[in-house]
Structures
1.
Amino acid sequence: PKYVYSWGAGKADGNGKMKPLLGGKGANLAEMSRIGLPVPAGFTVTTEVCTHYYANGRKYPADLQRQMELGIAKVEKVMGVKFGDAKGFPLLVAVRSGARDSMPGMMDTILNLGLNDETVVALETATGNARFAWDCYRRFVQMYGDVVLGVQKRAGEDHEPFEVVIEEAKAEFLGNAHAEDTDLSADHLKEVIARFKTLVKDRTGHDFPSNPWDQLQGAMSAVFGSWMNDRANVYRRKYGIPAEWGTAVNVQAMVFGNTGSESGSGVAFTRDPATGEKVFYGEFLMNAQGEDVVAGVRTPYPVADLKKQQPASLKELERIRGVLEKHFTDMQDFEFTIQDHKVFMLQTRNGKRTGVAAVRIACEMVKEKLIDWKTAVSRVPADQLEQVLAPIFDAKAVKAADKIATGLPAGPGAATGKIYFNADRAVEANEKGQKVLLVRVETSPEDLRGMIAAEGILTARGGVSSHAALVARQMGKVCVCGAAALHVDYDKRTLKVGKTTYKEGDFLSIDGTAGTVYAGEVPTAPSEVVQGLIQGNKKAQKSGTYQNFVQLMAWCKKATKMVVRTNADTPEQTAQAVAFGAVGIGLTRTEHMFFEGERIDAMREMILSDSTEAREAALAKLLPFQRKDFLGIFKALNGFPATIRFLDPPLHEFLPHTKEQQLDLAKKLGIKVEVIMNRVAELHEFNPMLGFRGCRLGICYPEITRMQARAVIEAAVEAKKKGIKAKPEIMIPLVGFAKELEIQVAAVHAEAKAVMKETKTRVSYSVGTMIEIPRGALTADEVAETAEFFSFGTNDLTQTTLGMSRDDSGSFLAPYAENEILPKNPFASIDQTGVGQLMEIAITKGRQTRPNIKLGICGEHGGDPDSVKFCHKLGLAYVSCSPYRVPVARLAAAQAAL
Ligand code: ADP
Ligand code: MG
Ligand code: MG
């Protein structure tokens, strides 16, 4: 079998499509060579050799040595030099690892391999450049000693041993331990190398290998060995890369960026990876080799500066930039070296980019006819699309800002404002026109008003699925949660971080894309997309960001099969989601409407009532509020359907829990505080998640269901009179038994009938259920007798299937991920094998009874790209997610359908 694939002089055995066999780096080196780009000759030892190596007790296939000798011979021929030549210019090689995808944790590259005490002299003679020759040798011994021979920092040592030798030499020869490497003369370097070799002998007990073939063997074994090192194993597990893939080894002729001031080394992107702008972007250093550019020891210059120093090289790089884009039809991230004014290409790959850049590049490449629209849709990572909607910090201001803490990036974007620790005070401040940040240890439904008033939310505790994070995402608010360095004192209204104390009203800024917290006011602006779509800002609509976004969404519409709805509780949220392309509401949580203003009082009165009559009287007060809310939502939807879920949470959530609040409420309602205390005690539950909630409330208090049905139907009637088409879909939560649904549906129909009779108006509506309990899924054929639609409530379905409470899972989810029990957070991305299987059962059984049953999903998972793709596969009609996730879900749904 063929183990060695050569390239060079405009030819190659392999090509860019052979990444599994040649690794990403090797495949693209072959491809670049084929298309005539200046690539130093070399060869790839395939990933199959890696697999063989591990399958056979770390031994190589018999024919490998012969093939490698042929490979070296070809390189020698192309380059006109000989490996190990002690007379003429010796061939030196780079040994470079290369898996399918670039993988941190793999072995570092070894440069200048082939040097020893004789060949270095030959190199010096051939080039007439002593400093250059000994600099190469110094680099080689150091890299090889470190990476292959393992001469590294030991426990208790503060610095790398080779670095210690260099610093001592600099102090001794130059009088400054931190002088630049380039200040060391050839003679200095000779002495450093001698000391390096002594170090190697002391540490390993062996002499530094001088035979180039031994060196090559050693380097290759080190690359293959690194495939199974701890760092690589951890990385592979995290990203699900199978060990069988193996890595390839690339052996390539060296070109030299360190021959002097006429040479250099750099990295570049064919477009700006941060903004996507079509400009040449990158940096370089003169008289530098390898990692000097990214190591941060010397500060590199922008590529444009080459114009002054080597205009011809810049022109050549510009030409290459064009060739690369045309050939690979994607933005490339590449590495180059200039040797005495000649440019060489050392690597290229598709460049990583921000969400903003991804959208811009995809759209512009379609315009440039480099790619078609389907490719454009498939290229933008769905998850990153949210970045295009997020408010933004001024980049310069961030650099200057004082970062005081980090937490989890829970709601992307930038926000700045005066800090408040209490929802009411935040609202008050906001009403006075202040920009506010709500800072809490963690948030609860009572903080909702404060969260609405705030630009951003910052919590000291809680994960990315905490209440704060969930609500923030739904509202498109910036949020950083779980910033453990924050010490919030509610009584003193202060926030302590380290030694600094911030008082209520002080400015802080948070970056919910990065999860960082800054002191003071860092300037921000809403994204142009939001300004254009939601605020109708004409200027923003002319911006490239806006137009590209709209274009991308139009393509998504063309491709998609499954549509996207939104989870929204207010007309504002609904209107936003519709602007983002939602075609209906998949979930309105009616209880969120009960927390605001006077409604919470009526709600509490209802809960405290001790008779049906008293409850009905209190409910009657809530009715007009609900009706108004629904009407507002119907208006915002303008003919799109709205799935309205009836009351779901346990009632105790609505009652005040501190003595002070209870006394307040008692006074307000004119009842004894003991009544409230007793009721709170009565409603106390050990497992509220599995307790008195969902349709269990409606079964015990049918008057609640009836009031809500009345509000929905009356609103629909009113809408009809105003010429607005309303399509309510009433959803009964937490159904596990067909009978539960039958009882609730009967109550809904009875009330609807009554309303239509009273108003002498007919409106249409449907009633269905949420599938969110395993029993409901398993008996879906029975449930479908009455349910006209199923909506998968995957939040609760995940909790009940896994037997894990989302709110309590923070303490063990991290070790569960580390131990690979859970590949992903199941509350963020659907557990496809477990929860997914229940969904499949429910779909199959539901369709047995009702072949055309409408199917959707309304859990938080509806905005997760992987889950969206899974829902497409299951054949759901729609997914539903928070407004700011709508574009993400639309993109994921389109990608699934391509
Ligand atoms: P990584 O995968 O970490 O980027 P590379 O194999 O690309 O590692 O090597 C790192 C650096 O070494 C390159 O960016 C380049 O500067 C230098 N390098 C690699 N191969 C050669 C070569 N043939 N000639 C000169 N420099 C090289
Ligand atoms: Mg590289
Ligand atoms: Mg639920």
Note: The pocket of adenosine-5'-diphosphate (ligand 1) is lined by residues 40, 94, 96, 102, 109, 111, 252, 254-255, 265, 290-291, 335, 337, 346-347 (CB under 6 Å).
2.
Amino acid sequence: MTKIIITCAVTGSIHTPSMSPHLPVTAQEITDNAIGAAEAGATILHLHARDPENGRPSADPAHFMAFLPQIKQRCDAVLNISTGGSATMTLDQRLAAPKLAEPEMCSLNMGTMNFALYPAAERVTEWKYDWEKPFLEGSDDLVFKNTPRDMEHILLELGEKRGARFEFECYDVSHLYMLKHFVDRGLVRGKLFIQFVFGVLGGIGPDPENLTHMKLIADKLFGDEYAFSVLAAGRHQMPLITMSAILGGHVRVGLEDSLMISRGVLARDNAEQVAKIRRIVEELGRNVASAEDARQMLDLKG
Ligand code: KMH
Ligand code: ZN
């Protein structure tokens, strides 16, 4: 079976420092977590920045530039900068850092949607009083805007002009059809790397049947011209990505997607999640792809 790409999404923009003391926030913490993840076996590092003063998601290129060169210098992993940023940022804000840094990969979110986490029953109190309220007013009622023109703009600015390849974030079956639309228009070419996203409230639910359905439709639309990976929010992370590995897909872990390592236990860092999924996939007979393998498989500029 094909080698398996482990992506690690190091910090994201959803969780808050109040939810885990291990969430990386400063440039040093993001660097150390990224390097630890790469050493544990992560092939791709999916990166967001935060304001070190308060831990809020940041679109400031200076915050990205405080860790990107260090990470690049200390490991060979493929660097993937988010163009999703956070749902409260404008498109221009979201694109400022990737335009400047010109990474090998960027994320590209394939539709406008509601965006929230499922408030776990045991976390409802935390959600109401401790979750983003001091951070992002109304963060449990956000619209994540990714219109067709937004997507086209990202494809042109980062893909055509700067040579980035994309992690196409598909939160629903409809997003696969949107991606096909861009393939048909010739704006997306070559081998696609599609991230099936499960468990965001507003996207497809974290049921195993949905993974087989997403794969079925992607097979129909893209044939051999795509590879899929899976990410799932919170407690669905490990079960659904394990299913992806069994189905021949790739996997994404990281504290962006889940703060936990097992039920009720916070992950102490990103590397712990990478090491766990590496153990699982190797037990299943898959070999982990190196960064060089991924560059070949996904036709990256290197
Ligand atoms: N936060 C994930 C559900 C992005 O950065 O572009 C999806 C994501 C989006 O990683
Ligand atoms: Zn992200």
Note: Residues 6-298 form a domain with the TIM Barrel fold (CATH 3.20.20.70).
3.
Amino acid sequence: VLDGKQPICECNSCYQGSDCSNFIPGCAANVDGYVPFLLVQHAASSAVVVAGWHRMSYKFNDHTFISQELERLIRKVHDIVGNAVTDNRFIVFGAGSTQILSAAVYALSADNASSPARVLTSNPYYPLYKMQTELFASVNFEYQGDTSLWKNSSDAGTNMIEFVTSPNNPDGQLNKAVLHGPYAKAIYDRAYYWPHFTPIPAPADEDVMMFTLSKLTGHAGSRFGWAVIKDEAVFQRMTKHIGVTSIGVSRDGQLRALKLLKVVLEREGKEIFEFGYETMKTRWEKLVKALSLSKRFSLQDIEPQFCTFFQKLRQLSPAYAWLKCEREEEKDCYAVHKAANIIGHEGSVFGAEDRYIRLSMIGTQDEYDLLIDRLNKLVSEEVGAK
Ligand code: PMP
């Protein structure tokens, strides 16, 4: 980090010293975060320098809040990756996909309905859907829990808005909507639908799909996400929501996204996705190996599938491990790991039992190595104790 004239080294949490090489003994392996790591090796070509007078106004020259060039690049990235249909679709930008989530809930609910649309999730689910919907609850929509409660609902006439996360956070499954029929609408969160995390069996073609730079290149701090929308009326309502809540998306953020997507598109995406896939696959293999002798812990089961991007059957490389504590008495898997100096995310955060814990596979290499060290220790204690 450059602070005035002094270069300051930003160390990972477990390291200190002027060159960040001193390990802090006993430091916890903190793998509860969402800190992806891609593009670290493209420091120069992905850099952005902005003159002080540049891009100062709310809008672009065409009086929109959206860079047309960035929109073109987004369509191109989806084309070469083959993960989403964008022809004859509208694109909306948001401050991360987080802003898009609430814009989509607003857009899919009606202003004059007799009862609020039910906003629903399927366990285990990404917790922000519930938190955000509850925060913004209105006469138009309300969070009403798990989809299973409403699957056979005879309460026809009330719209249901289902969040479908595919691949899912926390367990990496390629989920599909469970609610169908004239009152069921789905918001597909495709944040992790990129070749480094999952096979791409076919281009996604849902009515409302959301993507984010945070999981494509790892630039979560730039707060840039987008949605691909089929229906013009939904697109208009989402655009209105984003206009009213933040008068569009940071133009600095858009500029940064533009530069990053250009780097992604070098060699038709081969470099970044191959690097990302190899890194994630190696991490998963190490995790599986670390737990292979354990009867105490198990990992989620994900089916390997053919990936149209890599043109091969893909090995697993999910963004998160969804680990289960198998011993009857170990109902608090978070506490079990905390005692071993590993900090994850409790299952109950995702609407599941606390017998589960989510461990992030997308942190820095140091954090990840520390996780594997600590897990190796846990498993050798278990195996040795037999
Ligand atoms: N959806 C899912 C499933 C996520 O895991 C995340 C980030 N953890 C988001 C959306 C939000 O991403 P963004 O940074 O684009 O707001």
Note: Confidence is low (pLDDT under 50) at residues 1-9.
4.
Amino acid sequence: MDVGIAESAAQAASIAADLIQRAVRAKPELVLGLATGSSPVGIYDELARRVNDGRISLAAASAFMLDEYVGLSPDHPQAYRSVIDDIFTRKVDIDPARVHGPDGTAKDVEAACIEYEQAIRAAGGTDVQILGIGTDGHIAFNEPTSSLASRTRIKTLTKQTRIDNSRFFGGDLDAVPSHCLTQGIGTIVEARKIILIAAGRGKAEAIRQTVEGPVSARWPATALQHHPDVTVLLDPAAACRL
Ligand code: GLP
């Protein structure tokens, strides 16, 4: 695990974009793994800047989202599909038809999860996975006690995550869905390269556990310790307990 402590969240995002730039130049048909949440927004902005000034192109790339709420239609402003379209897809030159996410409105949720795993595999697997982290150490929506070998599946969100994410729903906890579809930890760690970005004091304990703690389902991100190519990029506040 490479851990980089940047001067600021903006600098961490720029370093992440450098890594992605290198990867997409080496392989234009890159398969990118996309995270939602506020943490990766700086990376997406930086990628958009580089696409707009011609330094990189994502025109041949494809992308797979980590997770999606169950029950929100894809055009609901807080459905992860529309969030990703707002913060990433529309800002870069990727083909929107090649940006994929789990189908949170599927009637047969189990079949949708299996299909999603197959689609990732059919694309050749994820080359570079961008990750944020929850305050409780969750990655995607793999909450504490999730199996470290888990695959894409339906999960119940913890109260803490619903509280954390209620800010996106106007502070209304009842408006936050109770379930989600999420890539499993076993799915995520199959990505060839993983970039985890975190900023702010609220993430400091999760980062301490992820980097220095014992590997345990209690802190799902600790599973990354077994991965051969993980870069953790932090601002000083997120790194303050290391
Ligand atoms: C959600 C997402 C995660 C994300 C986490 C942290 O729970 N499912 O993928 O890492 O929030 O969000 P933020 O970056 O806004 O702190």
Note: The mean pLDDT is 97.
